[in-house]
Amino acid sequence: MLKSMLLFVLSTWFLNGIVFSQDMTPDEAATYNKFLEDQNRLWTDLFKNYNPTISAIYTLHTSKFVDQNRTAHPPITELNLTLGMLKLVDVVEVEEKVTFLFDYIAEYKDSRLKWDPLEYGGIDHIYVPQKAVWLPEITIADAHEIKFFESDDAPRTAWINYNGTTGFYTSTVASVICQMDVFKFPLDHHECGVSILFHTYFADEYEIKSLMGDIGKPLALLGNGEWKVTYVGVDEEPHKTGDVQRFIARIERNPGFYVALVMIPAFFINFLSIIALFINIEDVGEKITVGLTNIMAMTFILVILAADLPKTARIPLLAIYVIVGLVIVMTSIAVVLVLPFIRKYQKKNKNNEMGEELIKTRLGRFYNWLKLEYVLMMIFQMANFINFIILFM
Ligand SMILES: *[C@@H]1O[C@H](CO)[C@@H](O)[C@H](O)[C@H]1NC(C)=O
Ligand SMILES: *[C@@H]1O[C@H](CO)[C@@H](O)[C@H](O)[C@H]1NC(C)=O
Ligand SMILES: *[C@@H]1O[C@H](CO)[C@@H](O)[C@H](O)[C@H]1NC(C)=O
Question: What span, in angstroms and rounded, lies between the C-alpha atoms of 245 and 79?
């Protein structure tokens, strides 16, 4: 008997030690206990007649069985979606798929969940499991895949304010379809976003509004290595049931990788090829080698590009650049191959007719100095350079 009493005393002392181990003074403990009591009472009263499977949506707006002229309708259920986070994770151009970390706060009013704070010791908000309250429909449209961060071990929580405003925070990874025009690749930018709508209710019963929240991170941190985010905002698009709310991000590719690994090498390969072609024009075999090497280098670059691009009808500017570069070098080869014949013809003409006289004039001397092949080389280098510059316009 004594032993069990001692055990009881010890265990209560021990349990108290656990519950109030965070250095609560007796006054604090009393306040907390009062709060727990009030909250318990509030919970019981609030959920006594509440069934979370019964919707809060008022459906009599268009009922034929109600005298519409004489009925005072309550306001329609309004859901406020506030953007919590929209961070770009990944862009797969080939599949036109863009993945975002997409978090939102949903808030709506469930008039059944109201109370007077003064009756419950001043409590103005409580936290409940989401399963305990009715949740309205929120559908993410045009999505490949949505992952919600939830598990049975950690049920998601909602809050309820005394005026019936109920809300919850949701984190998702949303992979959405985004039409991408990659014509300007790698200097392309796109507008992609997550669209939210509802299918269940009528437009006069329910409404979703999107609001811009405080993301808490600068735009510079919302992109990934390849893409930077230049704008995040909200938008509305008409749809057959109410408007579609869109959280949009404008993204812009960091072109550095392609500039350094494709554009500049292609430019210099062409630059050197053209020089190699126009000096020592008598060696035909060497010209063919230069041409072949150039074709191989350019084809290799095109293969790198092909792996990254969607196979759209419009060929991207960068591919056009590489192809035009190839055409410029091919044309140079053709010109170089006929150049010796022109030379021969010129020499013959010079010798026959006004050769001696022309060389005497200043202009003639200038022409002689400025060999035809160097002029042509300049022209092809210019073409190569213009082709390069046009990419950045
Ligand atoms: C309601 O009012 C409209 C015009 O405001 C009228 O045409 C209609 O007959 C009324 N309906 C009833 C049931 O009184
Ligand atoms: C939704 O947002 C509007 C405007 O910001 C506000 O007036 C309204 O009270 C909000 N509704 C809810 C249920 O939070
Ligand atoms: C309900 O109360 C909360 C907290 O006091 C407030 O932020 C919110 O705007 C109120 N909502 C409405 C619809 O009155």
Answer: 11
Report residue 360's pLDDT band, with 50, 70 and 90 as the boundaries. Answer: low
In a domain, 160, yes or no: yes
Ligand 1 atom with minimal separation from the 67 CA: 13
pLDDT in tens, 282-304: 788 888 888 888 889 888 888 88
Q: Is 161 in the pocket of ligand 3 (CB under 6 A)?
A: yes
Q: pLDDT tens digits for 266-276?
A: 999 999 999 98
pTM: 0.78
Range of the domain at 131: 77-254
Determine the Cα–Cα distance for residues 54 and 52; give it in Å rounded to an integer: 5
Domain at 112, CATH number: 2.70.170.10
pLDDT at 308: 74
Q: Which of 76, 165, 166, 207 to mutate to test the pocket of ligand 3 (most atoms within 8 A of CB)?
A: 165
Q: What is the CATH number of the domain that holds 335?
A: 1.20.58
107 Cα–ligand 2 center, Å: 8
